[in-house]
Amino acid sequence: MYPKGASMLHTIRQVINNDEKFREILRGINKDFYHQTVTTQQIENYISKKSGIDFSSVFNQYLRTTKVPVLEYSQKGEELKFRYTNTVKNLKLPIIVDGVTISPTDQWQTIKLKKGSPVEFNNNYYIDYQKVQ
Question: 3-state class of 103 per DSSP?
Answer without folding.
Answer: coil
